Amino acid sequence: xxxRFEGSYLxxxxxxxxxxxxxxxxxxxxxxxxxxxxxxxxEPGTAFADLPDHWRCPNCDGDRDQFxxxxx
Length: 72
Hints:
little secondary structure
C-alpha cells in the first residue's frame, strides 16, 4: 500500500466534485476544469476525474496522484 499525502483525493475520482480545482504538489500547477488543459488538448468543462488515464501534469509531468484538491 502506498502512502498518500494529506488533501489527496486518494486516487478515488468519485471523491472530487466535477468543478473542483486541483493543484500539483510538485510544481503548484492548478488544473481548473473550467479552463481544461491546452497542453493535453483537454476541453474546458472536463472534470479532473474525467481526464484520460495517460494525463500528467502539463508543467512538470507529475502523476495524477500528485494533485490535491484546492480549498477555495
